[in-house]
Amino acid sequence: MRRFSWKRVLALVVAGAFPMVLGGGAPPGSAEGRTELIVNGGFDAGTSPWWWTSNVSAQVVDGRLCAEIPAGTTNSWDAIVGRSDITLRSGESYEFSFTASADQPVTIRANVQLADPPYTAEISQPVSLGGSQTYRYFFTSRADTQRASVQFQVGGSSVGWTFCVDDVSLKDGAEVPGYEPDTGPRVRVNQVGYLPDGPKRATLVTDAVRPLEWVLRDASGRAVADGRSTPRGVDEASGERVHTIDFSSVRRPGRGYTLTADGETSYPFAIASEVYESLRTDALQFFYIQRSGIPIDGALVGEEYARPAGHVGVPPNRGDIDVPCQEGVCDYRLDVRGGWYDAGDHGKYVVNGGIAAAQLLSTWERALHAGTGQTGPLDDGRLRVPERGNGVPDILDEARWEVEFLLRMQVPDGKPLAGMAHHKIHDREWTGMPMQPEDDPQPRELHPPSTAATLNLAAVAAQCARLFRPYDRAFAARCLAAAEKAWTAARADPDVYASETDSNGGGAYADTHLEDESYWAAAELYLTTGDPAYLDFLLTSPMHTADVFGPGGFSWQSVAALGRLDLATVPGRLPLAERRKARVSVVEAADRYLATQRSQAYGLPLPSNAEFYNWGSNSGILNNLVVIATAYDITGKQAYRDAVLEGIDYILGRNALNISYVTGYGTKSAQNQHSRIFAHQLDPSLPHPPKGSIAGGPNAGLQDPFAADLLQGCRPAFCYVDDIQSYSTNEVAINWNSALSWVASFLADQGRRH
Ligand code: 9MR
Known about the structure:
Blueprint: H1 6-15, E1 51-52, E2 57-61, E3 64-69, E4 80-88, E5 93-102, E6 106-114, E7 121-129, E8 133-140, E9 145-153, E10 161-171, E11 187-188, E12 193-194, E13 201-205, E14 213-217, E15 223-228, E16 230-235, E17 240-246, E18 254-261, E19 264-265, E20 269-271, H2 277-289, H3 298-301, E21 323-324, E22 333-334, E23 348-349, H4 350-370, H5 394-408, E24 421-422, E25 424-427, E26 444-446, E27 449-450, H6 451-468, H7 473-492, H8 515-529, H9 532-540, H10 560-569, H11 576-599, H12 617-635, H13 638-651, H14 705-711, H15 734-751
Parallel strand pairs: 12-20
Antiparallel strand pairs: 1-4, 2-3, 3-10, 4-9, 5-8, 5-10, 6-7, 6-9, 11-13, 13-17, 14-15, 14-18, 16-17, 18-19, 18-20, 21-22, 23-25, 24-27, 25-26
Bound molecules: ligand 9MR.
The site of ligand 9MR has 12 residues, from loops.
């Protein structure tokens, strides 16, 4: 052990960039009744019982353990310094600390985990190393085991480097410091802004039981309006007492407005008709930056996002141009290049890629019917994509990038299940983070075909056919042929399900209820072809009379709403009585969402129960806004338009955490979403997610270890943390950005109305 200065530890810890590097607690060795589980953590007795992988050499240097780490390994666990035989008790809280340095800027993982399979980690902490610094973490063990180990996983660097570590300590009896999110001012507003002729509401967190005065000030500080708040009692989703404030009567455009009440002043916001214009394009721009199989051009989207093509068979990549199936699944290989990476991982999943592509197509289709399509703000040249200027609207070019991939996932003729779609293609094993697509060395594999993926492909390809017809007849014909082939294959094999446990190296995306997928596919095929066979199928589907608009919003698993929305809005084919029924069902659903919205003091169309704050809750909210917006397009009733405008306030900052969930929008926005590409939090040389990327949002299920430890016991609206490790609350994903794109395009159109 080196000479120990507790003062220095505290100073370094407080200066640490990582939020869980916390100060406080007792100095090592001083706590009463706490057991130190690490023998020889200071290396005073040499290196025993520490071990390291055979590619590492280590020795005691100047009282610390110093290890030479080789260049050119891939995963963090490809080089490890550790020690085993540690006993952990379930429910016990531990304090894990060490001092470490690196002679190169690297990110390692500091783990307390099972020493052998399944290697479950109780804590797996990314640590960015540089000069010597002390790190301290807390966790509560879920495991009861005598086989735990402390592991410094130091692999994954392209250059060789020296790792030194000292004073490793793991102590039981820890008091886990409570996590207090920084929620800023108690006056919660849409941090981006409001339309001049739209509703303007805010939420105030306060224990006051009576109405309170509020004042709206312009950028120069001049009071422009005032009034009294409305007490709303306890907001169930957050557990806080709140009031609402309504300043809708203020219509004068301006930037830098603030709202003051109860001694607190909101973040600034604008009142402007163009307030959602850039969101429309930024939300869509995300897709190009997520593309697989093409270099990302920095001249188009900024040099920080430039990267070589991912997964085009250039080493160390082993995909995606000639991809085999998982062992025993098929005897052929497919070229499945292209498409978009699903989310923070590099997987490509047909059911999720399908709904995301469909939502982009629908954004265009809605704009066409609403009169804001051709020669409008979504026309060719509006996005920064390589295809701009080709005479095709860029949003269609972007959707096509995915559709072409989906078509490649179809089982070739002459093979078992020909015409079905493989459910997904992804890495054999999960890769570490960060990981640029072109650096991914994992074998890529096709997973078995599924009926869900096949029907999904049929739906999207059918929609593709009708929207591409004016621009590229050959491609439209290819889409329609693939759609019909997929439909026929799915009818022949209606119950081939993806495995719920197939989640090594990629997500499962399993689904065993497929009536909604067939309904959606039949709806799109009918709207495109007018073939009465599809209409017959639709009218006898259990979905025909079912309520397809649940409180939590439609999703990759529940897609009937996509069919119903198109039956209600795409002109031409459906018998009038049926079309009327579809429209009524959309409007009735919108009315239910409006009732929910009125019950929520934060103005969101989502019930407060934990079950609705699930994985990707922000997309559920946005998809409910899609339904409300469609009710507006159908009826022209102001109440629906206002409800969409108020609903977006929640996403852009009027919420319990006072955070805008869209990167780069608002004073305080999500920026550390889980992504192997945009992993700035782990490696400062990498970018944050691009402006316009939406985070999954609060997930009361706390389905990742980081959130589970940090947010234990959270009220639903607080079950979110802007940390790259929290994949179940804070990931980016194509199906979430597609929902945002649809809604942002609707909102931007409202700003252009006058
Ligand atoms: O969005 C998906 C969510 O509905 C599921 O509950 C969750 C767990 O299976 O998976 C989510 O999707 C992830 C996928 O499995 C892998 N890529 C990242 C996706 C977004 O988190």
